Amino acid sequence: MPHLEIHNLTVSYEKNQPTLEQFSLDVEQGELLSLLGPSGCGKTTTLRSVAGFIRPDAGQILINDRDYTQLPPNRRDIGLVFQSYALFPHLTVFNNVAFGLRMRRIPKKEIHDRVTNALEMVGLDAFTKRRPAQLSGGQQQRVALARATVIEPQVLLLDEPLSNLDAKLRVDMRQEIRRLQQQLGITTLYVTHDQVEAMSISDRVVVMNQGKIEQIGTPESIFAAPETVFVADFMGFDNHFNAAVVSVQDRKLTVDWGGAPIELRWRSKFGSPQRGARAEIFFRADNASLLAGPEASGLVGQVILHTFHGNELRYLVETEIGEFSIMQDSASERFEPGAAVTVQPQPQKWIAIFEETEPYA
Amino acid sequence: MIRRPNQTRTIILLVAPAFVVVLVFFVLPLIFLLSQSVTPKEGGYTLTGYVDFFQSPVSRIVYLRTLKLGLIVTGICVLMSYPAAFVLARMPARRRTFLMSLVILPLMTNAVARTFAWLIILGRRGMVNQTLLSLEVVEEPVRFIFTETAIVLGLTQLFLPLMVLPLVSAMENIPDDVLEAARSLGANRLTTFLRIVVPMSSDGLVLGATLVFTGSVTAFVTPAILGGARLLLMSTLLRQEAVIVFDQHAAAVVAVVMILTTLAVNLLLRLLRVRQV
Amino acid sequence: MVSRWMYISLVILYGFLLGPFVIIFMASFGANATMAFPPQGFTLDWFARVFETSQFVDSFWISLQLALLSTIVSLVMGMPVAYALVRFQFAASGLVETVFSAPILVPGLVIGFAMLNFFVLLGKMPVMTGLFIGHTAILFPYSVRVISASLRNLDPYVEDAAVSLGANRLRGFLLVVLPNMQAGIAAAFVLGFITSFNNVPVSLFLSGPGVTTLPVSMLSYMEYYFDPTIAALSTLLVAFTVVLVQTAERVLGLSQFV
Predict the structure, then answer these.
(1) Cα(A264)–Cα(A267) distance, rounded to whole angstroms?
(2) Would you give the DSSP letter of residue C208?
(3) Of A68, B1, B46, B244, whose CB neighbour count within 10 A is largest?
């Protein structure tokens, strides 16, 4: 039985323009699940519905098989970490963390012990008397985490918790959150728009777009095998072209690449594609390489420019089927703008996606 | 701002009580005033009160004088405030805070006290006359009180802070970089001021002008002390009609004309601000 | 960018703004009752005269009561409005804002006149009630504006945080929002108090027999007497304002709300 269940949730801010439509999701006990998507995709709405700040038009939210849908937010037993941290500016770190326990009328002695323990876990036991304004961004984030977890909530919700931190701190805090979550074994819903963050921290990832789930799966499966054009785009597949299917086997299909056939994996939401259908093909910049001069087989192109990225050089290559961005080791042979090259594919890492309902011949 | 569905009830609960109070205790008396202005003693509804107001030379002169003095005061305030506000906006924060509190101080002192000073300065035996007499520029004391000059001086002193404050806050938002960019592109100081600072602070100027002008054309204390019955403005005319002539109908007409004038100026200058955005 | 002639403009501005205060100050200590300039001699008689003039003492108490009462009422009623305007977006918010800022747009003298006719002459209300209504109405816009400004400085999500931790909406407001609005409320209070205490136009028509505010009684005193008593009283009021405003500025940063 899943720990948190969302059934057919529908939320609209304006009439007949649902932000979430028939949205369903199960989260297992102790799992960290990320809701990933661009702004306006409904991920924060989902989170705020679970927290109880949004009363859905339809649907159900269950925790431990108990119906939470009509419960007001202050009686839900849910820990919430806000993007802005939302610390209470007039209270000390200790009193911020103690707030939820005081609302639960926990005895004073126990409050003291639990707050001290929670602050120790996030490494802030020396800061109990400070005010939020006297803390750095990372420290404020830790206070917010301690405040949300000290009440031992059923479910922990994090809303873009790292977006106000600088890049280096973000990586540290990511690990810290993951460590704390696993230590407490707490069921967690994590909202982010950053795919790297979602990949690194989650047990499972839900990619959302326009109030609907595009794909759900482990970080590895989503990274390697996007099921829709949207997910492929969002997962950072740099290159994209359109080609006719030459032949279809069971799990693979063949398309033409500069006169040579290449074999690709495919994904379709509408059954097996037919010969002659157009496939949307995606690949990453590091899943192809460049060879000098035109080769007998493979796609020929011309280097337009290159940019330096430390260990790698990124080339922009113009071919007859479009421009591609290709990463090469900077130690390998260097091509100057204007040079003729052949684009050598690694098709086992490429993917063909079909989104048309009627694959046309 | 947080978006929440189903919030209408909460909003109504929060706003309704005060809203009703304002309607009953503020809007209703004004509606009554409006109705008074169209119901003369003889009874019936008529706009003759307004026609009389603009036809009678006395009230027309008062109205035009009020507008004229308002414009003059606004103009003087702009000229006095613009360069000074620029200096203030470019100052280190601590010194600026101190100087700004000196600008706010007069605003927080009652108008009677502030206008009283002008009696000492401009009176028959006041500062200016004593100086003129001792320098033998004049042989007899000059009459300054009950002149337009006195009213303009008093109003300017009264409303100057209302021009300085919005100008300074508008100019604070102009980054130093922009001014340096203008200089690096070949503009001299005056050109930079006129072509960069002035347009970028025009919002503050329009707001300040609105406040100073509407303040000047409706102020009572200054024209009452420095203009008296000899040099009436709209506000002192209203008082005279209501208390001395005791013609509530005519007084209501004056009052409504004052409201309409203020609203028109506010609307006009607000449109000006919107157009610029 | 700042050139010398601009500094000269600063000197002129401050001379003009503050010069009259210097003159009032000097006149209030001068021994000569006709206030010829420069003042001759030194005396504190005029200050004594202020306290001996019952007209001033009585109206001072009325102004004080009126300012306290109308400020508090306008704050209590303005706070929920400010909260709704800052925390929610709704279709009628433009209308609400306009209605609550209307008392600034209508000339004070006209407000006083309209209220005299409606409440006192037509409704036979006591003079003090009329004054109270008038002052509360003109303070509304300030209360709503200053409290809105202080609410805007507070992260709206702190309330949700309190609720997610188990507080209901009302407790969340009392425990988390209100303590963080103290400075804003205090600033609104000082501003409202001063505005009411100094007001002439609204009080002018609404003052009645025996019930007159201090500025209005200063004005009527000046119609009959021209001596340094008013200067002495003005000096006292300026001193009072300076202390009040400087304290408020030091403690609350008042100027950010004006």
Answers:
(1) 10
(2) B
(3) A68
User: Left if phi > 0, otherwise alpha if psi is -120 to 50, otherwise beta: which for A97?
Assistant: alpha
For tokens 């009678």, the residue is: B56
pTM: 0.84
C255 DSSP assignment: G
CA separation for the pair C204, C188 (Å, rounded):
24
Q: Cβ separation of A151 and C165 shorter than 8 Å?
A: yes
Domain that holds residue C107: 54-225+241-256
Query: Taking CB atoms and an 8 Å limit, are B3 and C89 in contact across chains?
Result: yes
Average pLDDT, chain C: 89
Domain count, chain C: 1
* Rounded-to-integer distance, Cα C27 and Cα C238, Å: 14
User: Shortest CB distance from B4 goes to which of A12, A53, A57?
Assistant: A53
Of C70, C90, C81, C87, nearest to C196 (Cα)?
A: C70
Q: Give the architecture-level CATH label for domain B59-276.
A: Orthogonal Bundle (1.10)
Is residue C34 one of the residues assigned to a domain? Answer: no
Does residue C2 form part of some domain? Answer: no
How confident is the model over B243-277, as pLDDT tens digits? Answer: 988 999 999 999 999 999 999 999 988 888 766 54
Bridge partner list, A264: A253
Question: A-side interface with C, Cβ within 8 Å?
Answer: 51-53, 72-76, 78-80, 82-84, 86-90, 99-100, 103-104, 147-148, 151
Residue C4 placed within a domain: no
Six-digit token string for A324: 């591609």
**Which chain B residues are within 8 Å of A11, Cβ to Cβ?**
5
- Say if the Cβ atoms of B6 and A11 lie within 8 Å: no
